[in-house]
Amino acid sequence: MNNASLRYLLKKLKDYLAIKTEMVNHQAIIRDVASGVDRSWIYYLMLLMASLIALLGLLTNSVAVVIGAMLISPLMGPIISSGLALTIGDLPLARRAFQTIAVSVILTLLVTALVSLLSPLKDPTAEILARVRPNIYDLFVAVLSGIVGAVALCTKRNYLITATGVAVATAVIPPLSVAGYGLGTGQIMLGLGGFLLFFTNFVAIVLTSDLVFFVMGFRASHAETVPYSARARWLVIAGVLLLISIPLVYTLVVDLKKVNTSKRIERVLKKNLNKGEISHLTGYTYAPRQGRLMVRATVNTVSFIEKKNQQQIEAELSDTLKQPVDLRLEQLLVASDKLPESGASPLIPGGGTAAPRLETAAELSARVGGVAAHAEKELADACAPFPVTDTRLVFNATGGGVQVTAILHRDYTLSADEQVLLTRTLERSLELPVALNIAVTPLFPAVKFADDGSLSTETTQKLALLRQLPGGPDGFRFIVEAPKGTHAKEIATVLRHLKQKLHLPEAAITAVKAPERRGTTDITLRILRRGEAP
């Protein structure tokens, strides 16, 4: 296409838009849009009802209820008004619109956070999780919805139907309810994700409606007050665009990194586990946990994959991803040979059925040992950084459940909530009813010293896990117990290591005399939660 043809098409488009803009009643639309920012008790009642309906729909995982909240929400009015205010440079209208939006957002967050705090339903549902990670596609949806809404408002073509569709597509209230839910339940990152989705929709609608209003002939001359300068308006738009682009670009980069990581994991797993009729990868998941990447893979196999082979796969994953990887392989024994089409057994004349092969003692021991190791790893991850050892399983032949016993190395017992949480974790993992019994043993039964009087390598390695305490060291007390006759220099060495090497708060560290009934000559260290009885 040459320049003359391009100029001709641009002229025809300009003439067409000029004809259409003459049909737009600019002053009437400005009055209609300006009325959308009027705050009244009806507006706030509708807003609160919409936010509560959205929250209940999210908590009960009901799509229909969430859609109903989208249709009730009155928040689209102030958002469209702010877009028009930027177009015509009407500062009073912009101020009123943004004030209404700010008050609406704060009120919605407070109400939904309070209801979430009081609600017995606190687990995130699929509807909640779908609104905590906005990406570039959510921005595109909001941009297109803003264009459609502004065009429908200017032309009055099917406005009521179009406005309903725009409200459903952009959905500004459910993300705000997710943000309030995150605040009320203490899941701050989840709440931030919901607020980012709302902010993305809000900015995209404002800017695209601003563009549509400009194309439809709205200018600063239509403002009833002294118009805001064009330069100031462009600065506001550029600043908002920059503000929203930072988290969206970050999300895009993270998503691309996740896709790349997923492909690398899949490539390594398929390379090692897809072995013709011997084994086949059926699925995998991965998630970061305490500085390591936890990879779970399920595989159909005709024989159990040995531990050393699993470790080789784990090492290859770590080398490929350039980070430590823990591999959990869930193996399902299957038969690889196909049955004859006639249905007759090739092993027994006349098509009889062979008796099932019983597992050998070695195979049964390996299978139970694998389940026990899997259970111990689940418990260790849930109780981290405190080690879990000696995990044993006793299967109930009549009830179909399993009794799990283990030893937890820490200085305070499990709370009732922890007991329930660990039991549910094992039941989900083992897919069996679980009776859990965890005994507690001291984390540091004895502090050992080297020949030069410093702490031994074994002790310093054990003490390093104090850097990984859940919630940080501020929530714990550290009690150094020294038996009678202990040299003061040894006590000072322990205290110095805790304060200077591990940077534990000095106010949380206490040195006391060990009870005589303990019957040991070694210094011990006890780690208790604040408020926990010694």
UniProtKB/TrEMBL annotation:
Q: Which UniProt keywords apply?
A: Membrane, Transmembrane, Transmembrane helix
Stored Pfam families = DUF389 (PF04087)
Q: Which domain of life is it from?
A: Bacteria
Organism in which the protein naturally occurs = Geoanaerobacter pelophilus
- Transmembrane segments in this chain: where? 41-59, 65-88, 100-121, 136-153, 160-182, 188-213, 234-253
Q: What is this protein called?
A: TIGR00341 family protein
